[in-house]
Design goal:
Chain lengths: ~375, ~260, ~280
């Protein structure tokens, strides 16, 4: 989207003074915006030097709290000889986008975001293409992890963890084990007002789309409308919408069934009364990825960091300590699967899920959908 | 005149409404248990946890950096503006512009500034939050200083001018000393507002380490723990002390000025 | 010119003009660049289009306004008006007698009572909301004290309570100022003429304090109407206000133009209210 980038630099003075007139003039020059995904941003990859002196580079990384080992910065400094490593935290994809999707140099070299957000950043021309020759450890990935639909061939993102979305529930408080998305969309009397769903728009729509047998990436108005009806009806039986604390609500018994990402479902809780199920209608395959910002001045070090993380010994940390599946075969083979853990789900099973793609123009339909559901 | 007795009820109801949540909040910070809901005995352990929490400490430092810097900018700009508006213009429009940031919803200001920084291709960070906070702080300082100016006796200023002093000399030697209590009150107000400000900082901080209100917001979104109660109690103590001290200070300042 | 100014003392008029410039220009420049220009940017963005994957495309369009008059967004605006309106009304009903009571107290007690009302306002906004999450949530304090399982959080009522808690002092202060200023002799005269306490209140006190009432209502309504944090934390995402809508457009949908349009709608509502307020204040 070179044009977006050009127009972003439009001086403030023009934007203010000219208002509509200036706008019409500027906009009139460009062609229409129907550039499809195939006309992806010019992959003007920087020339990177495989033998660059990393000690002259420092790294700033933004990542979810607790998603990487605490000692990672020190280890990276030691092992890769980069001059400094600083970790910034974001609490949700939304906060990450707030930091990243602004022009200018955010100062961030490497960011952790979910797949469809990586795609949106790429489409906006904010990401550096991945230079595979600088990341030999890419070969550790499961072959499936290089064929994810939002980024086939890992052109601009490298998967860090992956999983699926399902129903997380209290096995001691449910009267029947949930098997279908309809169990939370149309909960039986004993579960009413004890169910939560996620609010981030694409995951808000997911249970309804799947229950109706549609794709999670549908842009058909009639399908989205049917999903909306189902979600609006479901709303009156919800405790609330919750993306962050549904695990706590299950533990306290405030909720008995919640829509949850597998890694966030506290199945390893010592009381052993929390379980996870992928509903029979199917679900998504979510991927949290690592991307390198185009504005980074430390691209060699950024690649070195990703390569370092893909080392099975490092990458396995996420599986062993925070119960997330990593798309790294060598790492997963070495991990001991703790009891109750969901790590046993195999890549082939995961791939039954559809990965969520950014739909460009059509993504506003989902914003509208979630607004409609919430405003009811 | 007889005071209507029934009015006790709404007053005390209001006080209970205002202080009960705070009392519960503070009580639960001494909870020995893991839950913020059920009291399981007295303990100070959450205060210990708090002091060891790097996010909170760094949030506090960032908040102070932002509050001190934005207050410094706002005190200078706001004081000059107040004098200018009170003494050198009758323009209603300028008045309105100077007051606008104080009445504009924070969300509007936050979004406007975010769009400005984006359009100017500016990197966001603590500097952008400082600039943003100085906008509403300037308005508050100007408003507070002006109330003192309109109440103030102008004869001294006139005498100074009659004796041949220029406007700048008059300002430095005569007006400024008279205004000092107002300037301090305005600066204190600006400082306190900046300490607590969340929405504008949330939009304009970009990738920089968050200020304390942003840290608290994300802690709350991830659940309720007595550690937040401990943090809340300390903040309550600090702001209560500051407000009461400020109240005392302005009283002393006023009685001095009246002498 | 320069030599003249050096040799001759500056004329008073020119000195005044220089002083006006010196005092006014720094602050006004600052506010123009960081307040008026941003507002102009919001205004202008409302006439542009969203890029396919976010960002602004500088092509003139009015489609954002066509989208705005969609019943969906109007209903959110209506809901925000309703919630902010109820909050303001409750604040007035609670705040007026409270302010009235404080105004009748002896001088020293007045200060103490006022400080007591304002004090909570000076604590962190988010923390005050957090206190209500603790009280109202399912396993929260209210339910555990009462031994009930009431559903208190995640509904409009919780949002109103949160807003009321946050902004009540802003109602009490201007009311207090207005009531304090009243001449007690007026009421005595009314009583001497045989009017009941209620008639005195209705015919004397209330009309004379209307400007304070209007200011207080505005002070409560404005921050309530544009709020997104309280609906976010206490509403559980089940009820949204225009502030949430704006935040979502900017941060989730990355639709700055439509977010800007909604912001304009918010400003427009507030301007109308300001005009109503000043009109009513003039008539009172």
């Amino acid at each position: 989207m070179f044009r977006t980038r050009f127009t972003r630099r439009l001086p403030a003075a023009v934007a203010v003074a000219g208002l509509a007139l200036a706008a019409a003039a500027c906009g009139g020059g460009g062609e229409s915006t129907s550039t499809g995904a195939e006309a992806a941003p010019s992959a003007s990859a920087a020339q990177l030097n495989a033998n660059a002196d990393l000690s002259k580079q420092s790294l700033q990384v933004t990542v979810w709290d607790g998603y990487t080992p605490k000692e990672l910065p020190d280890k990276v400094k030691q092992d890769l000889k980069v001059s400094n490593v600083k970790i910034n935290l974001h609490d949700t994809n939304e906060t990450a986008m707030k930091k990243l999707a602004v022009p200018g140099d955010s100062g961030i070299d490497v960011a952790f975001v979910s797949g469809q957000y990586a795609q949106a950043l790429w489409e906006q021309g904010l990401l550096e293409p991945i230079h595979p020759e600088l990341i030999p450890n890419l070969s550790n990935l499961y072959p499936e992890a290089t064929q994810l639909s939002y980024d086939k061939g890992n052109k601009y993102s490298v998967p860090y963890t992956w999983g699926t979305t399902g129903i997380c529930y209290r096995s001691d408080l449910v009267k029947a084990e949930p098997t279908s998305w309809n169990d939370i969309l149309k909960p039986p009397a004993w579960a009413q007002k004890k169910v939560t769903m996620m609010t981030t728009e694409r995951w808000l729509a997911l249970p309804a789309l799947k229950a109706l047998g549609y794709s999670v990436n549908t842009d058909k108005d009639d399908e989205i409308a049917k999903a909306k009806e189902l979600l609006v009806a479901a709303k009156q039986n919800l405790l609330g919408y919750d993306d962050t604390t549904f695990g706590d609500k299950l533990k306290s018994g405030e909720a008995v069934m919640v829509e949850a990402w597998d890694g966030w479902c506290p199945t390893t809780d010592p009381k052993k009364n929390i379980k996870f199920v992928v509903p029979k209608e199917g679900s998504d395959l979510w991927v949290d990825t690592m991307v390198i910002m185009k504005s980074s001045k430390n691209k060699e070090a950024a690649h070195a960091l990703i390569n370092y993380i893909l080392d099975p010994k490092i990458h396995g940390w996420a599986a062993e300590n925070i119960n997330y599946k990593v798309p790294n075969k060598a790492a997963m083979d070495a991990v001991k699967v703790p009891e109750g853990s969901l790590l046993g789900i195999k890549p082939a099973e995961l791939l039954n899920g559809e990965s969520i793609r950014d739909l460009g123009e059509a993504s506003t339909k989902y914003t509208r959908l979630s607004t409609e559901v919430q405003a009811q | 005149m007889r005071r209507p007795k029934l009015l006790h009820v709404p007053f005390w109801a209001t006080i209970v409404f205002l202080y009960l949540p705070i009392a519960v909040l503070v009580a639960m910070s001494f909870n020995a248990g893991e839950s913020a809901y059920t009291f399981e005995g007295f303990s100070l352990k959450w205060y210990g946890e708090l002091l060891a929490d790097e996010r909170v400490i760094s949030g506090l430092v960032n908040t102070l950096i932002v509050a001190v810097s934005s207050t410094a900018i706002a005190t200078v700009l706001g004081t000059l503006l107040a004098v200018g508006l009170a003494r050198y213009t009758r323009s209603k429009i300028l008045d309105a512009v100077a007051l606008m940031p104080a009445v504009l919803p924070d969300l509007v200001l936050g979004i406007g500034l975010l769009m400005l920084f984006i359009t100017l291709n500016q990197t966001l960070g603590h500097h952008s939050v400082i600039l943003a906070h100085a906008v509403f702080s300037t308005a508050f300082v100007a408003a507070v200083v002006r109330t003192r100016l309109t109440g103030a006796d102008t004869s001294l200023e006139e005498a100074s001018r009659d004796l041949g002093a220029g406007p700048v000399t008059t300002f430095v030697k005569v007006t400024l000393p008279q205004l000092t209590p107002g300037i301090i009150a305005g600066a204190l107000l600006a400082f306190t507002l900046s300490l607590d400000e969340f929405v504008i900082a949330f939009f304009t901080i970009g990738n920089a380490d968050p200020t304390l209100p942003i840290v608290i917001y994300s802690m709350i979104r991830f659940g309720v723990t007595p550690e937040i109660n401990a943090l809340a109690s300390i903040l309550l103590l600090v702001s209560f002390t500051a407000v009461i001290a400020g109240q005392r200070l302005t009283k002393i300042g006023e009685s001095r000025a009246q002498d | 010119m320069t030599s003249q100014t050096k040799t001759r003392p500056a004329s008073p008029a020119r000195g005044r003009r220089f002083a006006a410039f010196a005092f006014l220009s720094p602050g006004l420049t600052y506010l123009i660049v960081l307040l008026l220009v941003p507002l102009a940017l919001v205004l202008s963005a409302a006439f542009f289009r969203r890029g396919r994957f976010g960002g602004i495309i500088y092509e003139f369009t009015t489609e954002n306004f066509t989208r705005l008059i969609d019943p969906l967004y109007l209903s959110v605006l209506g809901n925000s008006l309703k919630i902010a309106g109820i909050t303001t009304l409750l604040a007035l009903l609670i705040g007026y007698p409270t302010a009235y009571f404080i105004a009748q107290l002896p001088r020293n007690w007045k200060t103490i009572a006022l400080v007591a009302i304002v004090l909570p306002f000076w604590t962190n906004f988010i923390i005050r909301i957090y206190a209500w999450i603790m009280l109202l949530s399912g396993p929260g304090i209210v339910n555990s004290v009462l031994g009930t399982q009431l559903e208190l959080l995640y509904k409009d009522g919780a949002i109103v309570v949160g807003l009321l808690y946050s902004y009540l002092p802003l109602m009490v202060l201007p009311l207090y100022a207005a009531i304090e200023r009243l001449d007690p002799q007026l009421r005595e005269a009314s009583a001497n003429l045989g009017a009941s306490a209620f008639t005195t209140f209705r015919k004397v006190t209330l009309p004379l304090t209307i400007p304070g009432v209007l200011t207080g209502c505005l002070f409560v309504f404005v921050p309530s109407f544009g709020n997104f944090v309280i609906p976010d934390l206490l509403g559980g995402g089940k009820s949204i206000m225009v502030g949430n809508l704006i935040r979502t457009q900017f941060l989730q949908a990355r639709d700055e133009p439509f977010g800007a349009t909604l912001t304009l709608a918010l400003i427009a509502v507030l301007i109308v209210l300001l005009m109503v307020q000043s009109w009513a204040a003039r008539r009172a």
